[in-house]
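Batch manifest, entry 17 of 40.
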Amino acid sequence: MNMDKLSEKEIILLLHSVLYAIQDSMNETDRRIFLFISKRLPDIMGKFGFSIDKSKSIEEHVHSFLNLLEDSGYIEDVEFKKEDEKSFRLKIGKCLLEDVGGVHDILRPKKAYCPYSLIVGSIIQELVENRVVVHPSIFRENGVIADIRIYRHAHA
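Output type: structure tokens
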């Protein structure tokens, strides 16, 4: 029996494999996912000054969250841009988890969502009444592109 210990790379790959398998079974992002995440954000991110304040814009909230990730070194070269009144694009140029684990290259996710895009979707869902949908991410060598849309009606 091999007595080597699991490395950070294997753990990252294992956890992302489970996440992508669950996501692959979904037709689309569900509001319950966003509610589950957003309920935990204050406990996890609150000690770093992050909170949902409905007087602030979507962009202010998302930039605040992404700045915390950038400052910690987990992501680099990040852009969150409003494409139009109801659409946003998240670009992450470099992700530490990809860099250490090689998740994108090894797992080659197809219909999957970057975990950071789901967190951004949950922040947006907290701020709007309408339905938010995170579209499957485009995984690149070191980063990701994710499109997020707010729909006027309950069903898009």
